[in-house]
Write a structure and sequence with these properties.
By secondary structure, the chain is an alpha/beta fold. β1 and β2 form a beta hairpin.
Amino acid sequence: MTLTCPRITTRDNGPTLSRIVAGMWRMNEWGMSVQQRVAFIEQCLEMGVTSFDHADIYGDYGVEGVFGEALRAQPSLRDRIEVVSKCGIKLLSSKRPQHGIQHYDTTAAHIIASAEESLRQLGTDHLDLLLIHRPDPLMDFDEIAGAFTRLIDAGKVRHVGVSNFTRHQFECLNRRIPLATNQVEFSPMFVDPMFDETFDGLQDLRIAPMVWSPLGGGRLFTSNDAKASNARAAIQEIADRMQQPFASVLFAWIMALPSRPIPLTGTGRIEAIREAVIGAGMQLEREDWFHILRAARGHEVA
């Protein structure tokens, strides 16, 4: 059976992404040749996974260039995909000798320079979505909105958003410029966004969040601590009963939320991405959904 990932528009007049986004954080650790990277992207596209998540700092400032090599080798790919990137963190790196300490920088000058460098590394003339990577204690909402506006007006960025912002931080910036999403950590191992108003606030605004680390950084597969073990057992019982892959049940659990989360994968294994796409087409019974939540939190709902 042909597997096709559904698509989702994050907000009114926002970007349309694939329901599963391929995260490229570790791409330069996958040991792929340029042609293997091209083949990987093409295999994602065959399943309808058209959106690829980056950040300027990924792979010690190297992943965007590695991905860009694939786009240069097969230029027809660019018009078939959505490229997401992030900026605002300055790492200590031999590639950035001017950085004296790891810190945040959300000044207009840095946002614009970082976006332009991402375009050079990726070999493209625009980013489909640019996010501020982390909230910066020194961030000026007006300055960020101004930088975003300049990039959009120049045609270098189509849509903008944030990552790891609180509800209040998100709403402050969203009042100044329409934000497409807030990319946050969420999994059975980290359920805070369900209870700290992050997801509620986005649902109220009809803006879909993106979700990083949906597998709990791999802990759901490998950790022996009680929380991971209990969640793993609950998910596995449902997967066995439904005769579906473990990861598919987990992705379905995340996507069942009414805020419409868009999960990122973090793998170079096509089979793992396929299991995520299967999850996008699944629907869990409400009791099964709460069974996983109970296992993750270690107690019944009150």
